Predict the 3D structure of the following.
Amino acid sequence: MTKGTVSGVVSNMVTLRVDGPVQQGEICYIKTGGDRLMAEVIKVVGQDAYVQVFESTRGLKVGSEAEFTGHMLEIQLGPGMLSHNYDGLQNDLDKMEGVFLKRGEYTNPLDEERLWDFTPIVQLGDKVQESDWLGEVEENHQPLKIMAPFQLKGTATVKYIAPAGQYKIHDMIAMLETEQGEQIKVDMVQHWPVKFAMTNYTEKPRPFKLLETGVRTIDTFNPIVEGGTGFIPGPFGTGKTVLQHAISKQAEADIVIIAACGERANEVVEIFTEFPELIDPHTGRKLMERTIIIANTSNMPVAAREASVYTAMTMAEYYRSMGLRVLLMADSTSRWAQALREMSNRMEELPGPDAFPMDLGALISNFYGRAGYVYLRNGKVGSVTFLGTVSPAGGNLKEPVTENTKKVARCFYGLEQDRADKKRYPAVNPIDSYSKYLEYPEFAEYIKNHINDRWIPKVLALKTRMQRGKEIAEQINILGDDGVPVEYHVTFWKSEVIDFVILQQDAFDEIDAVTPLSRQEEILDLVTDICEHDFAFDNFLDVVDFFKKLINVCKQMNYSAYQSEQYNSYVQQIKDMIK
Ligand code: ADP
Ligand code: MG
């Protein structure tokens, strides 16, 4: 292995004189005192390797020695990760006191002593390739696959497969023989370099399957799909966290992974205290049972912060290879971009806009590109749906992170200060937000088959009405209530009905919080009927009066258990009002 000698130290950037080949991204360990500091190669020029140390370089001296490992930053993947909290380097945060490790200390991400109930899938003599399912264990009610090593080349023959029984993660569960006659012992643990996308699937079509979240402004208005991408920009206090919790709890996903990149340590502590409290409405058990949190704060070293979103994505891809539906949320990707900026500035690279690295766009696009709905070799499907929040400084949506994200993410849920101030929650702006999936023919086909073929035209019509309502509101603002025709008031109030009945949703009301698709379908039909009804009024005061009453009944309907007697009576009242 290549060795190096420290020749310069600037904060976390260390220059090493090396005695052999070193590649970009390679991991090395620098010895200082009794500690071993982990570092990643950022740049190699001649005999000099510039490395970024993942922790404090305090006391590090020129002349200190380093050893290169020959591999990139990688993580261990195996049973035993669910419900854990890790940092960006996969240190188990639950094993430490507080959120910080001592320098040079790394924890084992997986429990090596725990026994797992293993059931074999393959049989002796079967031919397998990398990522093929060899067996199964269960963790917190999730069936997890034990797969052929991701690094396996070509086809191998199963020479041994462990019988059903209890095994530890490092016990041999299979022996494979390659075409070259090489024998490979397989245990339950995989390794993967986090910055490389897993490509262990046969096809990655454009995603098309609606991912139900129970949040109406998403499902009805701007749907996200299984394996799709979206982003949520919003200033502080506009409801990013509430929305993220709602989606995490309610979305039809098997595994939820949260990459928490906080500005301050207390934001991350908030996640650690809030998430374990969340109840999974699908099972009634703790959501945390099928969740992993990858956390970092801005007082962690920059390289660890940069790594965290990749670590989270790699875990997501791992579960996707098992045919599971994974929901990955990153809050906020702006912190990740800031880490990229700090690194690039320390490297004294030529900066791009706002001092972000020149290739920020490519980095964001590659990252979002790892999400997806995939067909596995065995014909099964898996998905990673990715939603990232962006916290643009001063709510400026023209800054580079937002702009570059907008180019790649297919859904945009813009949280708006003005709506939050008016308590119109979730404060997703109905005009600027979008879902590109609404334009996909595959998605239309799916909706046609699973809901009905009137759904999308109705949604598009309501979106147009929201736009028209906004224009009229502006006119009324300028010309006064009497300055526009009475029909304008009717049109405006119809858009208010859409807003109050479909878009606004109380995340803290037991019934209103989650709206199943069948119920959303009924609400969409009802609101469309209201919007298409011809109302004749003599003056705008009557309009206001009528619609306030109507909206009130609709809200009560939203708070009532679906198809209960009470619910049906509200629906009847609404139908009577538009006769
Ligand atoms: P952020 O994470 O963007 O700083 P939060 O998610 O913490 O903002 O939301 C701030 C507050 O807004 C919440 O404490 C809550 O009172 C209110 N809020 C946000 N979304 C909703 C919602 N869907 N229903 C009811 N209240 C909401
Ligand atoms: Mg928040």
